[in-house]
Amino acid sequence: MKERDVVTICGSMAGVSPTAAYSPAQPQPTTPSPFSFSVASTRWSSRHSIDISSLLLRFLSLLFSFVSALSLAAPSPSKKKGEESTSFSKHPELMYCFIVSIIAFLYSAFQLFKGVCDIAHRGILISDKLSDYISFILDQLVGYLLISSSSVTVLAIQQIEQTTSLRKPAIVSMSMSFATYLVIALCALFSGYKLCKRIIW
C-alpha cells in the first residue's frame, strides 16, 4: 500500500479530509522584532550626529586656517613711528606656516564639501569605507604639518624684533595655526572612531 493511501485512510478515520492530512505544515509568518528597528534607528542617529559634529569641526578648521594665512598675507596697517616693515616671505619659518595654513584651508574645504555631500547624498562622491580611511590618514598628516609649523613659528617670533610690524601678524598666525591643529586632532578622533566601528562591525 502506498504512503498516500495510508495517509488517506488515517485521515478518513480521524474525520480529516485527505488533502488536509497529506498537505505539509505551512511555515508560520514571523513578526519582525521592534528591537531590530530600534537598533537600526539608533545606529543611524548616532552616525548622523557624528557627521554633523564632524561638519562643524571642519568649518572651524576652515575658518582658523583662513585667518592664519590671511594674517600673514594681508598688508600691514600704516606704520607707526620707529617701526620697520618687513615681508613674511623673508622668513622661511613664516613662509612654511603660510603654506601649511593654505594646505589646511584647502583640505578643510574639501572635507566640508564632502561632508555636505555625504549628508545630502550618502556615498555619491566617495564610498563610506574609502572616505573613512582617507580622512583618518590625511587628518594625521595635516595635523603633523600644523603642529610643526606652529613650533617653527614660535622660534621665528622670538627672532623678530619688537619694532617690526610683522610680529603681531606672526603671533596671530601661530595662534590660529595651533587652533587649527586642535580642531584637526578632534576630527582625527572622529575619523578613527568611525573607522574602528567599521572594522569591528
Describe what this molecule looks like in 3D:
- This protein has 201 residues and is mainly alpha-helical.
- 76% of the residues lie in helices and 0% in strands.
- α3 packs antiparallel against α6, α4 runs parallel beside α6 (167-200) and α5 runs antiparallel to α6 (167-200).
- The longest helix is centred in the N-terminal third of the chain and has 40 residues, at 34-73.
- It is elongated and about 60 Å long.
- Mean pLDDT is 76; it is low at 6-23 and 33-44.
Global shape: elongated
Give the beta-strand count. 0
Poorly predicted regions are: 6-23, 33-44
**Number of H- or I-type helical stretches:** 6
**Helices and strands: which structural class?**
mainly alpha
Largest sheet: none
Strand content: under 5%
> Helical proportion?
over 70%
Measured distance between first and last alpha carbons: 57 Å
What is the H/E order? HHHHHH
- Give the overall pLDDT as a whole number: 76
Radius of gyration: 32 Å
